[in-house]
Amino acid sequence: MSDQVYDVIIIGSGPAGLTAGIYTSRANLKTLLLAGEKWGGQLMLTTLVENFPGFVDGIQGPDLMMNMRAQAEKMGVEIKEEEAVGVDFSKKPLKVGPYLARAVIIATGAEFKWLGVAGEEKLIGKGVSACATCDAAFFRNKKVVVVGGGDAAMEEALFLTKFASEVTIVHRRDEFRASKIMQDRVKSNEKIKIKFNTQIAELFGEQKLEKVKFTSGEEMAIDGLFVAIGHAPATDLFKEVIELDEKGFVLRKQQVKKYKMMTSIEGVFTAGDVHDHNYKQAITAAGYGCEAALEVEKWLEEK
Question: Which residues are in the FAD/NAD(P)-binding domain (predicted)?
């Protein structure tokens, strides 16, 4: 256990965590950021990012995260590529592993749920994606498959019809679980085909995705595969420590109206996809990181 007490410890190194660090360090708050062994969040698995403001020609996801990290370090953020373990928020100072802090920002993000089939991992970013909003434009006049049966899968498929020539939704059950209005929109769209009672067994391609094989043995030549079976918030560390919703996302308690990023524990704030299951964009995560940092600064001043 270190005797040093940081003003703030940030857990997570995606856009939310690094943006929060930039703001807390600029406010002269001594900041430790625990980045994790695989730092950078979901953007490290993304190729070209075209919708982050300031990059006219787009920027590669890992390059964007390297820039954010360099900026945070330049501002004075101490970054350790360590996993956060053993949090104790029951007393002050707050404890994260061997480190102590007056305030904590949880920005651990959320992870895409992948299919876990052969060929998938090596083709992520090479035709396999979990974000149509991010990558649909790369599949203009191409054939794509969407996997899933909920509202998110319907939204992905409908968005893809603006670009792709053909969209096929693959669902393992005999009916969707999506809302009726979303199902109606999908079923009335001429570009969308549906394959019920179907599961993917394997993906093929070297430099890019070329075809998919179903468990029935049928194969289909495609250019893109969008996995829309949900997100899992990275909150295992905080179960029974802070309040989470039924899906495991961090709850913002807003104990005091001016601290809308505070969790159920005073002095513990949150930012990004770990609490946001609506937008899930890099720019919104960064915005939440800014909000959390400004609130930490104000809260510490009051204390």
Answer: 6-287
